[in-house]
Amino acid sequence: MLTNKQKRFLRKEAHRLKPVVQVGKSGVNENVIQTTKEAIEARELIKVNVLQNCLERKEDVAHTLAENIKAEIVQVIGNIIILYKESKENKQIELPQ
């Protein structure tokens, strides 16, 4: 569980990032989950773009993705979801205590 201080730090770090995963009309499926797993293992902090034609609510997409890849939701703002998961092999981000 991330503290508020850690979430603030991660939001600041994510500000410069571009979305690497897009969730479209078909919603969260196995392909989206697998792509998200690979991206978050490589980068630790990612943005997910929920397209306007997605039939699911953004909050539901965020919770489904976070649950399936065992990541933390940093923020859901507009159509963007920010997810964080500490990488096992490729640790890049040092969280404040």
Automatic annotation (TrEMBL):
Domain CRM: 1-96
Entry annotated with the keyword RNA-binding: yes
The keyword Heme is assigned to this record: no
Full protein name: Ribosome assembly RNA-binding protein YhbY
Gene source species: Aliibacillus thermotolerans
InterPro entries, alphabetized: RNA-binding_CRM, RNA-binding_domain, RNA-binding_YhbY, YhbY-like_sf
PANTHER family referenced in this protein's UniProt entry, alphabetically: RNA-BINDING PROTEIN YHBY
Alphabetical list of SMART domains matching this protein: CRS1_YhbY
Pfam families from the UniProt entry: CRS1_YhbY
Keyword field: RNA-binding
Organism classification: Bacteria, Bacillati, Bacillota, Bacilli, Bacillales
Gene coding for it: yhbY
